[in-house]
UniProtKB/TrEMBL annotation:
GO biological process annotation, one example: ribosome biogenesis
Family to which the UniProt record says this protein belongs: Belongs to the DUF177 domain family.
One cellular component (GO) term of this entry: cytosol
Name recorded for this polypeptide: Large ribosomal RNA subunit accumulation protein YceD
Entry keyword Secreted: no
Key words, A-Z: Ribosome biogenesis
InterPro entries: YceD, YceD_bac
Naturally occurring in which organism (per UniProt): Entomomonas moraniae
Pfam families, sorted: YceD
Protein's job: Plays a role in synthesis, processing and/or stability of 23S rRNA.
Length: 176
């Protein structure tokens, strides 16, 4: 087990052979696309990555993420805290033929046997997918409740004279 640093690039087949576990935190400097989506730099991203061999000698990886980030509420435009946690399972494959070995609940990651793999990009992708499309507070937590515009008062109608009232007067008073 390795505590502290999560490596940028890994060789997943070698790590699976050695049953390596990485546990630590990631900073926003390592995740530039996520950084653009956040309201502040106040984040907490804890990661645990476990490599192992499966029952049929597949190279498997599990990532446990626990993150706390700040987003802008789209209802009140105030800062809100968003927490997410999840576990993601992957199987590394050299080609599509190994897809039959994919255990249930695992996603396939195809790469060559000797290719290094960018672990932090995968972690960043999972965090971006976990963010809400439209972040909003719960309705009772919004600092500034949205009020609907009240309708403008209806102006009193101007009384218009009836154009035929003159004819009615002429009819009553034929001398005019």
């Amino acid at each position: 087990m390795s505590n502290g640093l999560i490596p940028d690039y890994i060789e997943p087949y070698k790590l699976a052979d050695r049953n390596i576990t990485y546990k630590g935190s990631i900073t926003l400097a390592d995740l530039p696309r996520l950084h653009e989506a956040l309201a502040t730099d106040e984040v907490s991203i804890d990661v645990e990555v476990v490599f192992k061999r499966g029952e049929q000698k597949q190279a498997l990886m599990s990532i446990m993420l626990d993150a706390k980030v700040c987003l802008v509420c789209q209802r009140c435009l105030d800062i809100m805290t968003f927490c997410t946690a999840g576990t993601y399972h992957y199987m590394f494959m050299a080609d599509e033929k190994e897809e039959v070995l994919l255990p249930e609940g695992y996603d396939a990651l195809e790469l060559g046997v000797k290719d290094p793999f960018d672990l932090k990009v995968l972690i960043e992708d999972e965090l971006l997918l976990a963010l809400p499309i439209i972040p909003i507070h719960e309705l009772n937590e919004c600092q500034q409740l949205v009020k609907l515009d009240e309708p403008e008062p209806i102006e009193t109608e101007v009384k218009r004279s009836n154009p035929f009232s003159v004819l009615a007067q002429l009819k009553r008073d034929p001398k005019a």
